[in-house]
Amino acid sequence: MAKALIFFAEGYEEVEMLTVVDMVRRAKIDIDMVAIGDQRVVKSSHGVCITADRLLDEADFAEAQMLILPGGIPGTPNLRACDTLCQQLQQFAKEEKWVAAVCAAPTVLGELGILKDHQATCYPSFADQLICGQYVKKPVVRDGKVITSRGMGTCIEFAAEIITVLKDAETAEHVKTAIIYNDQYED
């Protein structure tokens, strides 16, 4: 079974994190919510508290096939300040394992050199901080083993791309259909 880890720090964007977790679990892919601090309960940028599955020192990086970063302010700078997480992101990129980030969080990948020579996207106001090969204004960009996305409104497509690479496109489409994503309605 595929294994993904999604990381969150104080000030994360809760919809970006939970949309990914919800859809990936609907696809029957194992994903752990990992808090980078010393507490399992972490407050979002909008005051929503969510309990992590595990703390960073309990995360099983050896079994993981993908590392995922939600955005949010100050969540993104808090993720960037975590040396252990940044080292793991760089190691994953070096080993050509999957990394994914949405909203402001692709800037973390950019600062770590992971987006060098890659096309990528992010929340529009962070585009000048992206440090990538080429900024692309698309909802989701997959280039090599890196997936980036623009923000909360693109998270269903972002999660579907994660499902596609960890499982298959058919499962991603099935999940989108099950949640009534872009369903056509008759009058």
Describe the structure.
- It is a single chain.
- This protein has 6 helices and 11 strands.
- The longest helix has 13 residues, at 14-26.
- Helix 1 (14-26) packs parallel to helix 5 and helix 5 (155-166) packs antiparallel against helix 6.
- 32% of the residues lie in helices and 22% in strands.
- The mean pLDDT is 96.
- With 187 residues, the chain is an alpha/beta fold.
- The chain has a 7-stranded mixed β-sheet with strand order 5-2-1-6-7-11-10. The protein has a two-stranded antiparallel sheet with strand order 3-4.
Concise structural overview:
With 187 residues, the protein is of the alpha/beta class. It has helices at 14-26, 75-80, 83-94, 106-111, 155-166, 169-178, and strands spanning 3-8, 30-35, 41-43, 49-51, 54-55, 66-69, 98-102, 119-120, 134-135, 140-143, 146-149.
- Listing every helix as H and every strand as E from the N terminus to the C terminus, the arrangement reads EHEEEEEHHEHEEEEHH
**Structure class:** alpha/beta
Give the distance, in angstroms, between the N- and C-terminal Cα atoms. Answer: 42 Å
Q: Strand order, biggest sheet?
A: 5-2-1-6-7-11-10
* Main sheet specs: 7 strands, mixed
Supply Rg: 15 Å
Mean pLDDT: 96
Overall geometric form: globular
Strands, total number: 11
What helical percentage do the residues reach? 25-40%
Uncertain spans = none
Distinct helical segment count: 6
Layout of helices and strands, plus pairs?
Layout (H helix, E strand, L loop, with lengths): L2 E6 L5 H13 L3 E6 L5 E3 L5 E3 L2 E2 L10 E4 L5 H6 L2 H12 L3 E5 L3 H6 L7 E2 L13 E2 L4 E4 L2 E4 L5 H12 L2 H10 L9
Parallel strand pairs: 1-2, 1-6, 2-5, 6-7, 7-11, 8-9
Antiparallel strand pairs: 3-4, 10-11
Helix pairs in contact: 1-5, 5-6
